[in-house]
Specification:
This protein is mostly beta strands and about 70 residues long. A 3-stranded antiparallel beta sheet has the order 1-2-3, with no helix packed on it.
Length: about 70
């Protein structure tokens, strides 16, 4: 689940401020890579990743245009 909110401020030289987040439910796949500690074994398999592998990420920022 992702969300972002933006607000434009100013009329002559407008700029945006924004805040948002990704993976808001903080769900992630544990042990995503099978046999990750043995990369040269026959059981190593990185193709089994089916979900997020990192937790929640919150961000904020400002956007403006340079002419």
């Amino acid at each position: 689940m992702n969300a972002q909110v933006s607000k434009t401020l100013g009329k002559k030289n407008p700029f945006d401020i924004y805040a948002g987040g990704e993976n808001l439910t903080n769900y992630y796949q544990k042990n995503a890579i099978i046999a990750a500690t043995q990369p040269f074994s026959q059981y190593f398999d990185a193709s089994m990743i089916w979900g997020p592998i990192t937790g929640r990420m919150i961000y904020a920022g400002m956007r403006f245009r340079i002419k």
